[in-house]
Amino acid sequence: AKGKKQFEVMGFESISDCLDRMSKEGYMPVRRTEKPIFKEVIVNGEVDYEPAGRQIVFDAVPVEKE
Questions:
Q1: Residues in a beta bridge with 36
Q2: Which residues contact 11 (CB under 8 A, 6 or more apart)?
Q3: What is the tens place of the pLDDT at every residue in 6-64?
Q4: How deeply is 27 buried, as exposed, middle or buried, from its count of CB atoms within 10 A (0-12, 13-18, 19+)?
Q5: Is the CB of residue 59 less than 8 Å from the CB of residue 3?
Q6: Cα–Cα–Cα angle for 51, 14, 57, nearest 5°?
Q7: How far is the C-alpha of 12 from the C-alpha of 42, rounded, in Å?
Q8: Is 0.90 topped by the overall pTM?
Q9: Residue 45: left (phi > 0), alpha (psi -120 to 50), or beta?
């Protein structure tokens, strides 16, 4: 049996693109995780971090074939 796999929503695709890709590979999502993405910016000579979007990752399991 195949195990769990993570699918990351790539920058160029929508969430539904990612779900389509997942199902083409025979997986279904069980959990969605969002992680903020930060970028470094220099403010007055200090390094600061500001939100630059979010990364969405789906935990997926193989679809059971009957």
A1: 54
A2: none
A3: 999 998 999 999 999 999 999 999 999 999 999 999 999 999 999 999 999 999 999 98
A4: buried
A5: no
A6: 60
A7: 27
A8: no
A9: left
